[in-house]
Structures are given as C-alpha cells and as structure tokens.
Amino acid sequence: MSLHVHSEYSSLDGWSTVDEIAERMLEIKCPFCGLTDHGVVAGHIDFDKAMRSRGLNPVFGAELYHGIKFDGQIKKNERDQAHLIALAMTDEGLKNLWRLTNATSDREHFHHVGRVTCEDILKYKEGIIFTSACPLGLVPRGLLRDDNEMLNWYLDNLGDNFRIEITTYPGDSEWRDMDSEEDEIVTPQIINELLVDVAQERGIPITYGDDGHYARLDQ
C-alpha cells in the first residue's frame, strides 16, 4: 500500500496527474494507493477512475492543515497550521473527510490556508484514520522539544484511529525546526527515531508514508 501521495491537485506542490500515479502503482504492483493532497479533495473522483480502470484500489484522503491558535492572537504573517493526514476507511468516513475539508472554506477557518480545528476533528472523526504526517505535523514538532501535548490530545480523542507516521527522504534531507528560536536544523533520521520510540513506548501503530510528490524520479 502506498500512502501519503500528492498529485497536481496539491497546488504548486504536487506534480503528477492521477493517471501517472495510477500507472506507476500498476508498474510496481502496488494494489492500494492513498491520495492525500494538501487541504483539498478535488482529485478524488478522477483518482477513483484512474485507479479502478487499472484494477487498483483507491484510498481517499487529504493532508489537512490543523490550526491551533484560534484565539485572535495570531501575529501578522504568522503561520498557524501543521500537517495532519486523514484517510477515509468507510463510506461515512469519506463523507466526513469531505465535510472536514469543506469546513475550511469559510473566513473563520482561513489564515494563509484553510485550516481545521480540534472541534472540527471531533465532530467529523468517525470512519477516518489520522496519522502524525510529515515533520511538519504537530506530533513530530512536539517531540523535538519533549512536548507530548498534541500527541496526548490525538490519542485521547482519536484512540485506535490514530497512527504514528514515519517517512524516509533522501539522505541529505533536512528541515529547519519551525518552533526553535535558534532556527535549528533537523534530519529525517532524528525525527523517525523520536517517532518510533514514542510509538513503541505508548503502543501506537506505525504506518509508513511515502510523502510522494512525483510519480517518477525523472519528473
């Protein structure tokens, strides 16, 4: 199964068409693929057609922006969002995923991007599997400073429907720690080790996310 995949519907971030993704899944004999475009579900119908026409199974998802600072205290140009993967596991889950993304479209939810709140997630969580997403998720960002507040919130409110996601990137990949005043650099290995340790300690299932933005290396 290939999860956490972006298409051209992830505006200015994904490159591949859903047909190119489906064709690649066919080539590598991967029968399931989860489409998780940034903050949108617009590619679901085309993705469904592309996958099923090749005898493959689509998994419908989105990489949501989870906003936290809904207290009117956001500073100018401050970005208040973190990534959160949502994957529909049932028909009701798919409807709830669409409801979640639809909720981001009003002015109260928008700040740089359309965000979901904790209240939105609680309202529409049924039938959805959530994962900690990439290093821009609230869980890995918290673990970097020994802060389990959001991990505990996800576990308390999502229970068995929450997963730790680990992702591999090229060996020279690195990120700036968004929450560090010193602008520290972190690597995928550091983040994955923290995620695996907490998953084993807390008994949280681990899933592997491709975080794929291209169907082929030559794109």
What keyword list fits this structure?
219 residues; alpha/beta; seven-stranded mixed beta sheet; two-stranded antiparallel ribbon; 32% helix; globular
Amount of beta strand = 15-25%
The low-confidence parts are none
Distance N terminus to C terminus?
22 Å
Strand order of the largest sheet: 1-2-3-4-7-8-11
The backbone outline, from C-alpha atoms, is globular
Query: Which structural class do the helices and strands define?
Result: alpha/beta
| Mean pLDDT level | 89
- Please, how many helices? 7
**Fraction of residues in H or I helices:** 25-40%
Global Rg: 17 Å
Order of helices and strands: EHEHEEHEEHEHHEEEHE
Please give the largest β-sheet. 7 strands, mixed
What's the count of strands? 11
Structure report:
The chain is α/β, with parallel strands linked by helices and 219 residues long. 32% of the residues lie in helices and 21% in strands. The chain has helices at residues 18-27, 44-52, 91-103, 118-124, 138-143, 149-158, 188-202, and strands spanning 2-5, 32-35, 57-66, 82-88, 110-111, 113-114, 128-131, 162-166, 175-176, 185-186, 206-208. Strands 1-2-3-4-7-8-11 form a seven-stranded mixed beta sheet. A two-stranded antiparallel sheet has the order 5-6.
